[in-house]
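Late entry, glycine complex.
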Amino acid sequence: MKILVVGGGGREHALAWKIAHSPRVERVYVAPGNAGTAQEPKAKNIDIAAEDIDALLRFAHQEHIELTIVGPEAPLVAGIVDVFEEAGRKCFGPHQKAAILEGSKSFAKSFMKRHGIPTAPYASFTNLDQAIAYIDSQDPPLVVKASGLAAGKGVVIAHDRGAAVQAAREMLSGTAFGAAGREIVIEQFLQGEEASFIIVTDGVHVLPLASTQDHKARDEGDRGPNTGGMGAYSPASVITPEIHDRILHEIILPTIRGMAKEGRPYQGFLYAGLMIRPNGVPVVLEYNCRLGDPEAQSILMRLKSGVVEILEASLEGKLHANHADWDPRAALGVVLTAAGYPGNYCKGAVISGL
Ligand code: AMP
Ligand code: GLY
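Prediction complete; structure with ligand written out below:
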């Protein structure tokens, strides 16, 4: 079979690498792919951007792609799964109205409130004066978040009132993140240890993937700015079997049931970004409607079962009949960045000598 992976990061390389292991797969196309996917024996890069849904669909028709797997959030939030499905092409990921769990932090917060899912106390705003009044009523530190998609950069941890007001002003005025910041969420800062809990779901059944933790601070010794992830390891030892159970029953299952109840059945990867509080209580910081990057790299390295079979079972609503085997050994991935990341940095530099 022929498979199309949408995206061009390390996560998509890990997916393509794992998919290519299947004897059923003759070719993995990656759009647009990267220098790593270009070196995989069964993979081929296609020069189509991950957001160009029409061109991706045309390509899928032309090449008779049997399964498309979407890596990044932007095409999912833009409705790629709906477009493919209407055209009769199998596409793995949440539909547009389910991807809103990542596409709107304001929606995600109110959804968690409606369904009793633990998350930090918060309020949402589109008006600066109201946001400032709320900031004045709270004790810092506060976390100010652009509600819409901001490529993982839309979160400011404000240690004092001034920083919170400045973040709120820059976001709401549109200067920081454009339309994505026209609505903001302000929430309480939570102490604890972060972990990523990622599952596959067919809308009813849930298959948890191996736990991971990504490392956010850019520099050695936990210093420097927060990034999208400088590396990840699996398993995350902070997720003990008891905490795993709590996450499943207090967070994941209520999320899947709640989305179905609200007429937004969720099928695809679902990523809960968690803070494990010092007392062991798991709390949701955010939802993502996809695999994490760089979490996927360490998860897929440990997956012994076939990923294609798991995703097919999910698309058919038969995930309960599937089971994932994991390599008990740990996996660790490290990210190298260009100087200046995550601010403005030079793109396209060549890495050699590996
Ligand atoms: P998010 O995109 O919402 O996950 O936020 C990005 C990062 O900001 C998280 O991975 C955390 O490191 C941090 N963060 C977000 N919300 C909070 C919070 N309420 N308390 C502490 N840290 C947070
Ligand atoms: N590593 C964080 C993310 O994928 O959102």
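The pocket of adenosine monophosphate (ligand 1) is lined by residues 120, 143, 145, 155, 187, 189-190, 194, 216, 226, 273, 285-286 (CB under 6 Å). Will revisit in the morning.
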